[in-house]
Design goal:
The structure holds two protein chains of two kinds. Chain A is of the alpha/beta class. Chain A has one domain: Amidase signature (AS) enzymes (Alpha-Beta Complex). Chain A is built from twelve helices and eleven strands. Chain A has an eleven-stranded mixed beta sheet with strand order 1-3-2-4-6-5-10-11-9-7-8, with helices on both faces. Chain B is mostly helical. Chain B has three helices and two strands, in the order αααββ. In chain B, strands 1-2 form a two-stranded antiparallel ribbon. Chain B is flat, with a radius of gyration of 23 Å. Chain B starts with 7 loop residues before the first helix and ends in a 6-residue tail after the last strand. The chains are: A alpha/beta, B mainly alpha. At the A-B interface, helix 6, helix 7, helix 8, helix 9 and helix 10 of A face helix 1 and helix 2 of B.
């Protein structure tokens, strides 16, 4: 008998009497995306009984387009992890290799698609949390440009970095779901408004056709390959990446080496910023408005909150809150947080310069194939370093896609394409060229 | 490895600031892990100063009254409520 993959935290169907581009399709939704009346746990004991009073905009758009939500998927607690092992509800297993992790933090969503439990899925990507599990489970995942998809109803972890995005078995299906969820939202303070056009409501998604971009056409496409993001990868991963490069060239693309020196500092910058934002965003979990019940007679405000947070948070969340608090504390802010912001600007500038010469940037999505279950759980730094190739797109707010590109030792390998801001059509086109 | 001054005392101080109660075993373990991770972050010292190139502008809309969450919905997830309010612990 197949092992239980532990894909879903809850399996309540959500559908409306609507028809549209998702009619007849089943959708899995990561459990940090709010669903009205249906529990949304964020993979945390802190929110084990939390039931949102409203839908995230992305969920509203999915059901309005005729999609049927089949369940809320398992994830690293509050999105903090690269393996889906930090969930309070136990790890998810990789459908392709059940003794391996599915990647994270949206591991349940990627596994749902890979295992056929849903046609498509929604995840969220803060530093690679869609693309990593897409690569590890052998499916397609897209992290949109910051501001393309509404963050309304996405439970915040590191709000300056994260976006909701789609998973699917094919590039075209992922593009279809992106067409549905992308668009302006007046309830999202970080939605994109292109004021330079003189139209207050202009949004990049209104003129875009993501499904139509999956046409496999490589003529005239210029692809940059940053040596910094290939050199550190395992041999088997590099072999598949080189095969993808040959496919691009065979389709008429011009592939050339580029350099992005700033990305060597990406992991450090990302973790300082993400942990700092986490320490602020997770301050709301005090057990009063939601969360485990508080014994209001047990002592003063500070003691009671500290007890609730000891009980409700797992180790990785505590670790990030502690380090984020430290990085923002008096005497250390300039050393860590300010330097990380400089690194972020440097990464943005490097990408801007690169996109003056190339249309998309290609690399392996992950430097390795999926870890064995438990392999990185006691070595957080090893887990953080695995995010080296996915983090730069979040730091620079850029769109990125992971597309399956063969296997190494029978384990899935993914290739990543990063595009310029709101260049989703270009990365979708590039991915459709190398798709099997 | 690094001269970052992180030990058990710093972890206890930061945990108190962050309102997370830790036992002694956790303090020791987090001190070791945080020292290793913060040691890795030392490379940020090499990053040059890069000033942001602002590409964002404020977009304002007219302030309109519209329905928000009802009080009942807002209180629904709370463990303790009283007379339509959240019930919390004593402040002092």
């Amino acid at each position: 008998m197949a092992p239980d993959l532990n894909v879903f935290v809850s399996e309540e169907r959500i559908e409306r009497d609507e028809s549209g581009p998702l009619s007849g399709r089943t959708v899995a939704v990561k459990d940090n995306i709010s669903t009205a009346g249906v529990p949304t746990t964020c993979g945390s004991a802190m929110l084990a009984d939390y039931v949102p009073p409203y839908d995230a905009t992305a969920v509203e758009r999915v059901t309005a387009a005729g999609g049927t939500i089949v369940g809320k998927t398992n994830m690293d607690e509050f999105g903090m992890g690269t393996t889906t092992e930090t969930s309070a509800f136990g790890p998810t297993r990789n459908p392709v290799a059940p003794d391996r992790v599915p990647g994270g933090s949206s591991g349940g969503s990627a596994a749902a698609v890979a295992a056929g439990e849903a046609d498509v899925a929604l995840g969220s990507d803060t530093g690679g949390s869609i693309r990593c599990p897409a690569a590890f489970c052998g499916v397609v995942g897209i992290k949109p440009t910051y501001g393309l998809v509404s963050r309304y109803g996405l439970v915040a972890y590191a709000n300056s970095l994260e976006q909701i995005g789609p998973f699917a078995s094919t590039v075209e299906e992922a593009a279809l779901l992106l067409d549905v969820i992308a668009g302006p939202d007046e309830r999202d303070g970080t939605t994109r408004h292109d004021a330079t056009e003189g139209q207050a409501d202009a949004h990049p998604a209104e003129e875009a056709d993501y499904v139509g971009a999956a046409d496999g056409n490589g003529e005239g496409l210029t692809v940059g390959v940053p040596t910094e993001l290939v050199d550190g990868a395992e041999d088997g991963v590099v072999e598949q990446f080189e095969a993808a490069r040959s496919d691009l060239e065979a389709a008429g693309a011009d592939v050339r080496e580029i350099s992005l020196p700033s990305v060597e500092y990406g992991v450090e910058a990302y973790y300082v910023i993400a942990m700092s934002e986490a320490s602020s965003n997770l301050a709301r979990y005090d057990g009063v408005r939601y969360g485990p019940s508080v014994d209001v007679e047990a002592g003063n405000w500070n003691d009671v909150f500290s007890d609730v947070r000891r009980e409700g948070f797992g180790d990785e969340v505590k670790r990030r809150i502690l380090m984020g608090t430290y990085a923002l504390s008096a005497g250390y802010h300039d050393k860590y947080y300010r330097q990380a912001q400089h690194a972020r600007e440097w990464v943005k500038r490097d990408f801007d310069e690169a996109f003056a010469d190339v249309d998309v940037i290609a690399s392996p999505t992950m430097p390795t194939t999926p870890f064995e279950l438990g392999e990185t759980l006691d070595d957080p730094l090893k887990m953080y370093l695995a995010d080296a190739n996915t983090i730069p797109a979040n730091l620079a707010n850029l769109p990125a896609i992971s597309v399956p590109a063969g296997t190494a030792n029978d384990l899935p390998v993914g290739v990543q394409f990063v595009g310029p801001a709101f260049g989703e059509e270009t990365i979708i086109r590039a991915a459709s060229i190398i798709e099997d | 490895m690094s001269d970052t001054p992180v030990g058990p005392d710093e972890v206890r101080h930061v945990a108190a600031l962050a309102r997370v109660d830790l036992d002694d075993e956790e303090v020791e373990r987090f001190a070791d892990e945080c020292a290793e991770i913060l040691g890795y972050f030392e490379t940020l010292d090499e990053v040059p100063e890069v000033d942001p190139s602002p590409d964002l502008v404020n977009v304002l809309r007219v302030d309109e009254v519209r329905d928000g969450l009802t009080r009942e919905d807002a209180l629904r997830n709370a463990a303790g409520t009283e007379d339509g309010y959240f019930k919390g612990p004593n402040v002092s």
